[in-house]
Amino acid sequence: MSALSNWREPGAILLLSCYEQGHQPFHLASLSAILQQDGFAPHAVDTAIDTLSDEAIQQARFIAISVPMHTALRLGEAVARRVRQVNPGAFICLYGLYALLNADHLLQGTIDAAIGGEYEEPLLRLVQAREQGQDTAIPGVRTREHASGAWIARTPFLVPQRRQLPALDRYARLQWGDDLRIVGYTESTRGCKHTCLHCPVTPVYQGRFFAVPQQIVLADIRAQVEQGARHITFGDPDFWNGPTHALRIARALHAEFPEVTFDATVKIEHLLKHASLLPEMRELGCVFIVSAVESLNDTALLRLDKGHTAADVRRAFALTREAGIVLRPSLLPFSPWETLESYIELLDFFEQQHAIEHLDPVHLSIRLLVPPGSALLAQEKSQRWLRDLDAENYTYRWQHSDPRMDKLHERVSAIVAQGENCQADASETFFKVKAQALAMLGQDFSPAQALSAYGPRDVLPHLTESWFC
Prior knowledge:
With 469 residues, this protein is α/β, with parallel strands linked by helices. 38% of the residues lie in helices and 17% in strands.
């Protein structure tokens, strides 16, 4: 079966997602809305949930694959290679942060275009140009023939169209004690006004962010509540980039759906600066906040330009506990500046604070990624630990000055993976990791004894799928 001749026939445009951290793919829903408004009839498939058929690939003339982060790109490039085999004549575009950062590599082979930043309008213009047989020199669209940076201009926001997507009950749930809640996902802002040096948002948005109109966000939430959502994840890089905007949306959400809870991502420095907002956030239904703690090593935090210190992290834990909100940290414990001693101190902190339950074990194994275009590349001191570009893995290689840390990373990754495969208790995995770290110092440690001494574990609100970048 050949590709459809009419670009506006159903299936002529195929939208694919591979991984969006256990959520129904917002990026497909948002792109579907702007394409449908222009008269196209895209077909959307979440390959993390459903099977992508050869027939769907063969029918398509234009295939767009969402790759917002590293894991999504790894999966997305594999899908693109399959698409090229099944339908050699299809035009393949990857869109998302990691598409643009890795465009030089991607355009050498499988794909025809890459888009980063605010992707909806450039992608629509690209589809229109292909339909009309026009040149694809479009701002924000990188091709083999035309170099273009990110399109960082305000998107004409529309309510995401989710009708084609898998049902919400097929994705991660919120587990809160014995209660399992269907989870929806939306975004109230795009980009970030902060420029943490390791973050992939930084080289693309360069400190800019855009607020999504409140009526758009609420309409998207409303549609998901109608589909059964009882909890909403706000996927903004930082929900408090615009705290007034965020609070207005949270208030409106609670006023319309008082039984619906939510979670959001907030920087440590914002938790301290706007600590007075935390009690109201809890009253409005916020059950946990994700924050990029990364490390408790002040040297590492300074090199990453995180804007907080280890003391700030301790204060943030105290403030959120006082407000009745769970703080769930994301970590980056393997970087050139972490030491074996500071890694163990990080583990000690969570054990002593009785906060192991706040962690997803995968975060104990996260290693610094340095994609092409990373702001870290411009740092003079980076040349001491940077090696060559591993384009096929979308990152520059780097080596720790202490060989024990690279060995520890390999062993911790294996322990975490085994724990995930066996669905082991997170605390058991934690203490196995600690035993491995202490073994590097020649110290004996009994995970079983430590687990017994730790005592009862709280069942804190969390999503049932561990997420990672």
